[in-house]
Design goal:
With about 675 residues, this protein is mainly beta. It starts with a strand and ends with a strand. Helix 2 packs across helix 3.
């Protein structure tokens, strides 16, 4: 930058003089490129690799309590000593000579030294986990202390992140283009991509996202009053969204061009703007690790004690694999989720759909087990009249229309009756009268005469088939012809295995059922027959197939209200091997995590909350839960955990990772280890 002085006299004569020398103004934040942790005994050394391209690095700041207190250091590393047995979220940031601060970076580790459980006589795994969390060998007192913590803040992920906004020191120039299409007839807009910008915005400190407020949505960006207003936009092409993770403060429109093109029907305005703006980005300011550790909630057996947040001391080696403890169940059994073949590097077993039945949509396919054996062999026609297909006058597609159809109960699919005299083909505008008068009502609106689907259409024979002259298309009204479950009771019968259950059983057979531990004990003898909940209780809808409506299940309501539960509402959804405490519909005691357990673990059901510090984080791999979300028109959805570690609903045929969940018996004892990556719990069965 140059330093300039402008002087004006009483007659408004002015003169400006600038320095010949340029001065460097450092408005850029330093960057932390990498952070590593080294643990030795009850000490952890944190090392930060950072850089600053302007004024240079000045100071490093280190914290062992997730940012509550910081220690300043001239050196890029610091060692915290005499640490207690606990899980730690260590944070660091750096400052340059000009006073600019980097984003805060965090790493997690745990200290478990001195074999605390064995020294205090807690030999059972479940007792050890609870006692160690509460720092007492008195289990009654330990449980009471955990309960006294109350409920964590489920409106935040754990650990929670807080952001600040930071405007770049240097401006950027970009080009924004758009084509605006008008009808030539009356010059009214037919399609008009708009430029979205606003003089105001809000910043969400929890998510680091920007939202435009009272925004302008128009095509004429050149009319924006940049002299008297400051404008913001979410995109360099001024897209049509008002929520974003990066904002631009517009400084000027440096250039503007417009080109007009026409054809027989339309007029096209090609507009190009050259814009100068400053980027505004979110920067992590701090972490809140308050809600990390063990909490209590009621499950089907009693008081369950579950882990939440950046937990690192819950690793168990069982069989040839490493597992992470989700919770100690109310009956003392221990629920674990597959972690990998290496305690330091989580990895997937395989990817699979929850249910790969992709040629039909029906609520029944959201079951861990499902029932399509009782689908009606006589298809039904929906009674709604709000559906339509727009066929434009310029549409040259050849479609096929029939007086009847064929239905295959084995494949549960329809085909058109293409026997002689029973179908016609052509462009709708040319055969419309013949199709309606001859009652050729059945169609797929497809150019393939051999179309095969679980869903077809029956055109209305009345006046709802309208020609929209102003818009040059026919609106064809139709009803759906379909088949599927006809009652909620039938839809929730547990008859056939879902795709993921089939693969879980195969994995169990190959890796658990046929193997023994080092003492020749069958691995299967370690496992308890605890409940796996596939909660299909309805929160809205009817729970069976109608195509043009929806059904939402209990997990969807609880995720929306941030009110997870470990109690399974319906006995039919309590999947167990024995029917003494559940439905008895499993062959093996294996399942998946639930969406409720994921939310309690510190995850969040929004892509704006990516939590890679949760103990469930799985090395950028997504994985399935066994919780259904809902069946909406032609699609069925279940909950999964995205690779960025948030709870999301996905199509039942979407391939996600499979992480088996098992339950160890309450009498499982610790042979050795402290539950960490470098010293996982080794176990055996007690009496």
């Amino acid at each position: 930058q140059r330093i300039c002085v402008k002087a004006t006299d009483v007659k408004d004569n002015t003169i400006t003089t600038c320095s010949t020398e340029k001065y460097l103004v450092d408005g850029e934040d330093p960057i932390i490129k990498n952070v590593t942790l080294t643990k030795e005994g009850n000490s952890i050394t944190i090392n930060a690799e950072a850089e600053d391209k302007q004024s240079g690095l000045s100071m490093y700041y280190f914290s062992k309590d997730s940012g509550k207190t910081y220690i300043a250091s001239l050196n890029p590393n610091y060692t915290f000593t005499a640490l207690e047995n606990d899980d730690y979220l260590l944070t660091v940031y750096v400052e340059d000579v000009a006073g600019n601060k980097s984003a805060v970076t965090a790493k997690t580790d745990t200290v478990r030294s001195g074999a605390w459980c064995s020294k205090n006589g807690l030999t059972k795994l479940g007792d050890c986990l609870i006692g160690q969390e509460a720092r007492t060998a008195d289990l009654s007192l330990a449980k009471a202390r955990i309960k006294e913590k109350g409920k964590p803040n489920l409106n935040n992920m754990a650990p929670a992140t807080s952001y600040v906004e930071r405007e770049n020191a240097k401006s950027t120039t970009f080009t924004a283009k758009a084509t605006i299409t008008n009808y030539l007839v009356d010059d009214t807009y037919y399609s008009r991509p708009s430029f979205l910008y606003s003089t105001k915005y809000t910043f969400n400190k929890k998510t680091g996202r920007f939202t435009l407020n009272n925004y302008h949505n128009q095509v004429d960006l050149e009319t924006a009053d940049l002299k008297n207003n400051i404008y913001y936009t979410c995109s360099t092409n001024f897209g049509s969204w008002s929520d974003c993770s990066k904002l631009y403060r517009i400084v000027s429109l440096d250039d503007y061009t417009q080109n007009i093109r026409t054809d027989e029907k339309f007029k096209y305005y090609d507009k190009t703007y050259t814009v100068t703006a400053y980027e505004i980005n979110p920067k992590i300011d701090e972490y809140d690790n308050t809600d990390t550790g063990m909490y209590s909630s009621v499950d089907d057996y009693g008081d369950s004690f579950y882990y939440r947040g950046a937990v690192k001391g819950n690793i168990v080696k069982f069989g040839d694999f490493y597992w992470k403890v989700i919770r100690v169940n109310g009956d003392g059994t221990i629920r674990m989720i597959y972690y990998g073949i290496d305690s330091n590097t989580p990895n997937t077993i395989l990817t699979t759909a929850f249910n790969n039945y992709n040629n039909h949509a029906d609520p029944t396919y959201l079951g861990f087990k499902y029932n399509d054996t009782e689908f009606s062999t006589t298809p039904f026609i929906t009674v709604t009249n709000g559906s339509y297909s727009d066929q434009y006058d310029t549409n040259n597609n050849i479609y096929h229309f029939s007086k009847g159809y064929n239905y295959n109960p084995t494949t549960k699919s329809f085909t058109l009756d293409t026997s002689e005299g029973n179908y016609i083909s052509g462009k709708w505008r040319e055969i419309r009268e013949e199709a309606l008068n001859g009652e050729y009502f059945y169609t797929f609106f497809s150019s393939n005469i051999n179309s095969n689907s679980y869903l077809m259409y029956k055109i209305y024979e009345d006046s709802y088939n309208e020609f929209k002259s102003g818009n040059n298309y026919y609106r064809i009204r139709y009803r759906y012809v379909s088949n599927g479950s006809t009652t909620y009771e039938n839809a929730t019968k547990n008859i056939k295995k879902s795709t993921v259950l089939t693969k879980l059983d195969t994995w169990y057979s190959e890796n658990i059922n046929t193997r023994q531990d080092s003492n020749n004990k069958d691995l299967s003898s370690y496992l308890a027959d605890s409940i796996f909940c596939n909660d299909r209780s309805l929160s809205s809808g009817n729970g069976y197939w109608t195509y043009d409506t929806y059904s939402y299940y209990g997990p969807q309501s609880r995720m929306s209200s941030k009110a997870p539960s470990l109690v399974c509402k319906q006995n039919n959804d309590k999947f167990t091997v024995s029917n003494s405490n559940g439905n008895g519909d499993l062959e093996n005691p294996i399942g998946l995590i639930t969406a409720d357990e994921a939310l309690l673990s510190g995850l969040y059901n929004s892509s704006y909350y990516n939590n890679k510090f949760s103990y469930l984080y799985w090395n950028n791999n997504s994985f399935l839960t066994m919780s259904p979300y809902g069946s909406i028109t032609s699609s069925d959805y279940v909950y999964g955990i995205s690779s960025s570690n948030y709870v999301t609903n996905i199509g039942k045929t979407t391939n996600y990772g499979m992480r088996p969940v098992i339950n160890l018996k309450a009498n499982t004892k610790i042979l050795s280890g402290e539950g960490t990556e470098d010293s996982p719990f080794e176990i055996t069965l007690g009496n």
